[in-house]
TrEMBL record:
Residues 68-248 form the 3-keto-alpha-glucoside-1,2-lyase/3-keto-2-hydroxy-glucal hydratase domain. The keyword Signal applies. It comes from the Bacteria. Gene3D superfamilies: Exo-inulinase, domain 1 (2.60.120.560). It holds the Pfam family 3keto-disac_hyd. This is 3-keto-alpha-glucoside-1,2-lyase/3-keto-2-hydroxy-glucal hydratase domain-containing protein. It comes from Novipirellula rosea. Keywords: Signal. Residues 1-23 form the signal peptide. InterPro entries: AL/BT2_dom.
Length: 259
């Protein structure tokens, strides 16, 4: 065996072991159980979906309650999961059938798991119904998988791929205001499948216009308002599934580089 190849295998094994150990210690990654004080918001049941979620009635909203998304089988581990299935969003019409938590959040820690069933599958996780963390198979650009959309490159290397569960673990600090003016921009720290991929990443605006999220049509998305908002999941007519999602409210006086 080539010596360099052998050493590269050792390095990869050590890196993987480090990621796994860190994930277990921090309660992050696929299968992570809720931390103390966290609230479960997706457990694969219809009951929890109806109890904690509603449609976002933005300018492109085209569906109607009750929520049309389906509870379907977890194809990997058994049990059930939530599928982004609403025909109103066919053709990539984001905003037509997106769902948002009934409860708004300011600062928080979020754990969310997703599985893309087919190549090119597309959804999105919106922090405060404003700032998208992309869920998009096959895209490695600033608009791609696990990017803070249009703000960072895609850490695509950490993606487990189609047909496998993936996990985002996120600490979000909301924008800060004084006398009605924003004095600190929102920021996010994130692990993707147990690997840290964003650290105190500043978010400059709401991207995608008014159909994308709250404040998207306000001064080109830069007019962020001082209001907590719900966690939103995007529907674009693709089979993307969610499970084991929990959130804990925080009060982050300063930026948080870790969990």
């Amino acid at each position: 065996m080539n010596r360099l190849y052998f050493l590269s295998l050792i390095s990869l094994s050590l890196f993987t072991a480090t990621v796994v150990a860190e994930a277990a210690e921090k309660q992050i990654g696929v299968g992570a159980k809720p931390i103390d004080g966290a609230e479960m918001i997706i457990d694969g049941s219809r009951e929890m979906l109806d109890q904690k979620w509603q449609y976002w009635e933005g300018p492109r909203f085209a569906s109607a309650m009750p929520i049309k998304w389906k509870i379907v089988d977890d194809p990997v581990d058994g049990g059930t999961s939530l599928m982004t299935d609403d025909r109103a969003a066919d053709g990539g019409k984001y905003g037509a059938a997106d769902i948002v938590t009934k409860k708004p959040y300011r600062d928080f820690r979020l754990h969310i798991e997703f599985l893309i069933m087919k190549p090119g599958g597309n959804s999105g996780v919106y922090l405060q119904n404003r700032f998208e963390i992309q869920v998009l198979d096959g895209d490695k650009t600033k608009h791609g998988m696990a990017a803070v959309i249009n703000e960072t490159e895609s850490p695509y290397h950490a993606y487990n791929g189609v047909g496998k569960w993936n996990a985002y673990d996120i600490t979000f600090r909301a924008a800060r205001f004084e006398d009605g003016k924003m004095i600190e921009k929102p920021m996010v720290t994130m692990y993707f499948n147990g690997e840290k991929v964003h650290t105190n990443q500043v978010i400059n605006k709401v991207w995608g216009g008014p159909n994308s999220g709250v404040d998207g049509g306000n001064d080109g998305g830069r007019g962020i308002t001082d209001t907590p908002q719900g966690l939103k999941l995007q529907c674009e007519g693709h089979d993307v599934r969610y499970r084991n999602t929990w959130i804990k409210e925080l009060n982050l006086e300063q930026a948080s580089t870790d969990f």
